[in-house]
Amino acid sequence: MLMIRPVAFHSNPQTASSNRFQDDPGTVDPALEQRAAATQFQGLVDSLLAAGVGVVVEPDTPDPVTPDSIFPNNWVSFHADGRVVIYPMMAPNRRAEVRQDIIERLSSDRGFRVDRIVDMTSHAARGHYLEGTGSMVLDRVRRVAYACISPRTTLDALADFGQRLDYDIVTFSAVDRNGAAIYHTNVMMSVGEGFAVICDESIQDPEQREAVLRKLEDGGKEVISITRPQMRRFVGNCLQLEAANGGRVIAMSRQAEEALGEDQLTRLRNHGRIVSAPVHDIERSAGGSVRCMLAEIHLPVR
């Protein structure tokens, strides 16, 4: 996993209008937000390392100020064929998160092979956005990208990704209890090796809902449905990982784990050990959780 240690984390006003999971911090001191985020970030790193998950931690830079840099999965994805994809993000201050130096160090210092960079950032100039594996939930084995359409996930950019990476794109509309578009697909669903967690009740159109569920089931996934209140507690923002011993780990926030029912917990544990950490201040201020903090490095090793 690539993780970015925050240095200037705080609630980002440029993302608030499109992210209903992001709470208004009111008069909270940004320095206090940063301090809490740094502590919770390290707690997640420690939990993953203890579970045998490999973590590459890179520090954010103080200039330019990038309050959401703790979520690298939005600007970059790494692929098993040696490609690295850079994405067009909606908020101007999030576009500054892109770090070519990190990509170079993965190759020069960490032994990963980078064969090609697919730069999609020019879409932003035309008002087309695609925020990485926040906008898309990838079934990398079957080459399917699930995406709920939102201001941050637009059709033109999705089609370009599908064509360049040879992915089948499954699009749908998903809304919260107030009818607002869910800003990122990865807060409402997650696809693992043999399972999928999904807030299918947020897909209002019955035909779209049936099509998504059928696609998941046809892909051999055990579908574990969650409710909108559970989605709001970031249960959908989980990620299955592989530990060094080959065992499976399902990473999520402590809030998310505590929101799961016993049956859901039992079914999830059939697919991996649940590893959770408290990241509640990050969730509240930025509207993202554990999965958003992890950019999977699928690159081949030299």
Give the SSE layout.
Layout: E1 2-5, H1 30-50, E2 56-59, E3 76-78, E4 83-86, H2 92-95, H3 100-108, E5 116-119, H4 132-135, E6 137-139, E7 144-148, H5 155-165, E8 168-172, E9 189-191, E10 195-198, H6 206-218, E11 222-225, H7 228-232, E12 239-242, E13 248-253, H8 254-259, H9 262-269, E14 273-277, H10 280-286
Parallel strand pairs: 1-2, 4-5, 7-8, 10-11, 13-14
Antiparallel strand pairs: 3-4, 6-7, 9-10, 12-13
Radius of gyration: 18 Å
Distance between the termini: 17 Å
What's the overall average pLDDT, rounded?
96
State the helix count.
Answer: 10
* Proportion in helices: 25-40%
CATH homologous superfamily designation? L-arginine/glycine Amidinotransferase, Chain A
What structural class do the secondary elements suggest?
Answer: alpha/beta
- Count of beta strands: 14
Report the uncertain regions.
Answer: none
User: What would CATH call the class?
Assistant: Alpha Beta
CATH topology grouping: L-arginine/glycine Amidinotransferase, Chain A
Q: Care to describe what's here?
A:
This protein has helices at 30-50, 92-95, 100-108, 132-135, 155-165, 206-218, 228-232, 254-259, 262-269, 280-286; strands at residues 2-5, 56-59, 76-78, 83-86, 116-119, 137-139, 144-148, 168-172, 189-191, 195-198, 222-225, 239-242, 248-253, 273-277. The chain is an alpha/beta fold and 302 residues long. It has one domain (2-293): L-arginine/glycine Amidinotransferase, Chain A, CATH 3.75.10.10. The strands form five sheets. Strands 3-4-5 form a three-stranded mixed beta sheet, with no helix packed on it. Strands 6-7-8 form a three-stranded mixed beta sheet, sandwiched between helices. Strands 9-10-11 form a three-stranded mixed beta sheet, with helices on both faces. α6 links the parallel β10 and β11 (222-225). α1 (30-50) packs across α10 (280-286). The protein is globular. The two termini are 17 Å apart. The model has no long low-confidence stretch (mean pLDDT 96).
